Amino acid sequence: MKPLFDYDFSKRVILDTNTLLNATFNRGGLAAHAISVLRRMATPVYVTPSIEAEVGRVSDRLKRKYRLAYDPAQAVRTVLRAQGILFAPPPRGPPIPHVNKIDEPIARAARHLDAAIITDDIEFIVEARAAGIEAWQYWEVSRSYSGDGELPDLSKVVRYGAPNGKCGYIFVRAVPGSWAGLKIEERFSICEISEGLWLYYDGLSEQWKVQTPAGEIVRLSMPLENDGHYIVGVNLRPTEKGCHIALMAAKQGGQEAIARADVRAAGKGIGNSELSIGHNRHQLEHWNGAIKDLVVASGSLPPRTFRLLVSTEDLSPNPADSDTLAEAVQRVIALVR
């Protein structure tokens, strides 16, 4: 696999069904933006011949979901024509082992075309890469582009999706500074949400910690190594008496550890609140390291998804493609130092 953003996206790419559907019905989303970037680069963009049949099978559901008064398949055909998207030849050869049955024809077509798959299906990306097929997320396409008005070659990025409920998730890829491995009485902040959660590392106890405004703390022991790359996730879900917090962490490519606890409340939740990054809300207790990717969003981050993310170097959840993006998601991209 080539280093991050070293892939030449002017080569052929093939879209999975969800990418095309998202671009069709969520024009402000990242999938639509990624396709527009590919068209600006004159990249040959393909879909499998079965795409219209797949859309037809879910037509009724799409009508209800997006409250459409027209045939969704017609909207998809319009996007295919407008964007100059091509139909790939029917997949040839035997099925590719260990790729899920639904997406396997796309992987086979990608191999035949020597094309990269563009999708936000993390499991599919992991399976395709394991089979030696290039596969990338929407945001990787967008971030690789260096045209006017774009932000090229970002290695550190913050994406903040504003959730719509009391609970949600935090996901981060981070590298600690030279303090890692030293037992010191300091706290190193990843982020703090005003009137919400504070995610930090306790140098003395060598624990990841999530703290609520009421002072309740969920702890996860994990000694850190200098220059190690770490992935941390916090998943919240409502309970009758408050929230259930799952705190997950792992060294990149390693085994994840999980701590769970019920708390009375997580403040106002991960809502439309101010987000302090790399320090607490008082501008103190800095991370003193690198934060590569931070996602704060609604929805959920199940342990299985977290495990898949840990096995990769670049993938992350994408809150910027909510079906109600214009109403529910605020997306910010910024350098973190």
| Structural Rg | 21 Å
Mean pLDDT: 84
Order of helices and strands: EHHEHHHEHEHEHEEEEEEEEEEEHH
The total beta strand count reads 16
What number of structural domains do the residues give?
A: 2
Structural class: alpha/beta
* Main sheet overview: 6 strands, mixed
Which consecutive residue ranges, at least 5 long each, have pLDDT under 50? Answer: 148-156, 322-337
CATH architecture of the largest domain: Sandwich
By DSSP (H or I, 4+ residues per run), the number of helices equals 10
Share of residues in strands:
15-25%
CATH level-1 class of the largest domain = Mainly Beta
Structural features, described:
By secondary structure, the protein is an alpha/beta fold. It has two domains: 13-144, 5'-nuclease (Rossmann fold); 157-328, Jelly Rolls. The chain has helices at residues 17-25, 30-40, 51-57, 59-66, 72-82, 104-113, 122-130, 138-144, 303-310, 325-328, and strands at residues 13-15, 45-47, 86-87, 116-118, 135-136, 157-160, 169-175, 187-193, 198-202, 207-211, 217-221, 230-238, 243-251, 257-263, 275-277, 290-297. It has a six-stranded mixed beta sheet with strand order 6-16-7-12-13-14, covered by helices on one side. Helix 1 (17-25) packs across helix 2 (30-40). It is elongated, with a radius of gyration of 21 Å. The model is unreliable at 148-156 and 322-337 (pLDDT under 50).
Describe the structure concisely for a colleague:
The protein has helices at 17-25, 30-40, 51-57, 59-66, 72-82, 104-113, 122-130, 138-144, 303-310, 325-328, and strands at 13-15, 45-47, 86-87, 116-118, 135-136, 157-160, 169-175, 187-193, 198-202, 207-211, 217-221, 230-238, 243-251, 257-263, 275-277, 290-297.
